[in-house]
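Weekly modeling sync, notes
Attendees: AB, CL, MP (scribe)

Item 1: holo prediction request
CL wants a bound-state model with L4P3G6V5 before deciding which constructs to order. AB pointed out that an apo prediction alone won't tell us much about the pocket. Agreed to run with the ligand included and paste results into these notes for async review.

Input as submitted:
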Amino acid sequence: MALAVRMRVPCRALLCAGAQLRGAALGRPEWAAGGGDGARRFASLRVLVEPGAEGRVAVMKLKNPPVNSLSLDFLTEFLISLEKLENDKAFRGVVITSDCPNVFSAGLDLREMYGRNPGHYAEYWKAVQELWLRLYLSNLVLVAAINGSCPAGGCLMALTSDVRILSDSPKSVIGLNETLLGIVAPFWFKDTLVNTIGHRASERALQLGLLFPPAEALQVGLVDHVVPEDQVQSMALSVMAHWLAIPDHARQLTKAMMRKATADRLIKQREADIQNFVSFISRDSIQKSLQIYLEKLKQKKG
Ligand SMILES: CCCCCCCC/C=C/CC(=O)SCCNC(=O)CCNC(=O)[C@H](O)C(C)(C)COP(=O)(O)OP(=O)(O)OC[C@H]1O[C@@H](n2cnc3c(N)ncnc32)[C@H](O)[C@@H]1OP(=O)(O)O
C-alpha cells in the first residue's frame, strides 16, 4: 500500500533530477555531508538536516532567509531532502522547523508569481504541487515545530504534518490568508484545511483570510499544542516519541487511508490545476493585486 501511494505521485524523480541539474547549473555546491557525529547529517544551501538525539528522528531546518519564502530553488531543495529521508530506512520521523527568527515560512514566494512568464508559473506550480503531495503522503511521521509566523503556503506546509506545535509568541500567527492578497486558495489548500478544522471553520477562515494568533489557532484545531518558543523543539521531539511508539506499518496504512482521497483529487487533475493557476496568476488584475501587496510589504519597513 505504501508503495502504491508513492507510485501514484508522478514525475517526482524527474522533478528532483531537474532540481539537481538546476543546482548544478547555478554552480552551487549540492549536498554536503557532515563530519563527526553527522554520518546522516546533510545540508543544501537552504535546508539543513540533522539527526535528533535518538537517531531515528531527523530535524529539518528551513533556512531561506529572511522569511523562508518558498522559492522554486527552495522548494526543490526541500523536496530532495525529504526524498533522501524517505529513502533512508534509519529515519522514521522528521521535525520540520525554521532557522529564520520569528518566521516559520512566509508561504509561496510572491516573486515567483509576479512579473514572470507562463512557462515559469507552470514550473513553479508543479513544484508547489509536488511538495504538497510529497509531504501529505509521507510515510514518515512529520511534526511541524512552528517557531514563528506561518501564513498561506507556510500554513499549507504545516497542515501536511501529522502534528503541529506552535510557539506562543504574538508573531506566530497561522492561517490561509490568500484572500487578503486578492487571490484564492486552490481546492487542495482548502481540502487540507477542511480535513484539519472542519467545514464551517474553514469557510470562515478562508473567506476572511484569517491569520490566527496562537490561542485561537489552538482553539480552532489548526495546531495541536502551543508552548513557549524555547520549548517548541523539545515538545516536538516528545510528541514524536509518542507517535513512534506505534508500529510503522499500521500507522502508515492508517495515514494513507485518511489522506489518499484528498491527494488523489489533485493527482487526477494536476495538469488542469497547473493550467488554472497559470491563467489565474497571469491575469492583469491578479498581477496588480500582487504588485500592491509586494509594495505594501516593502513600505512596512520604511
Ligand atoms: C485557480 C487556481 C488559483 C491559484 C491562485 C494562487 C494561489 C496561490 C496561493 C498563494 C499562497 C501564498 O503562500 S502567497 C504568499 C502569502 N504570504 C504572505 O502573505 C506573507 C507575507 N509576508 C509577511 O507577512 C511578512 O513578511 C512576515 C510576517 C512573514 C515576516 O515579517 P518581517 O517583518 O519579519 O519581514 P518583512 O515583512 O520585512 O519581509 C522581509 C523581506 O521578505 C519579503 N517577503 C516577505 N514575504 C514574502 C513572500 N511571501 N514572498 C516573497 N518575498 C517576501 C519582504 O518583501 C521583504 O523584502 P525586502 O527586504 O526586499 O523588502
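Recorded for review: The first helix runs from residue 2 to 7.
Action items: CL to compare against the apo run; MP to circulate these notes.
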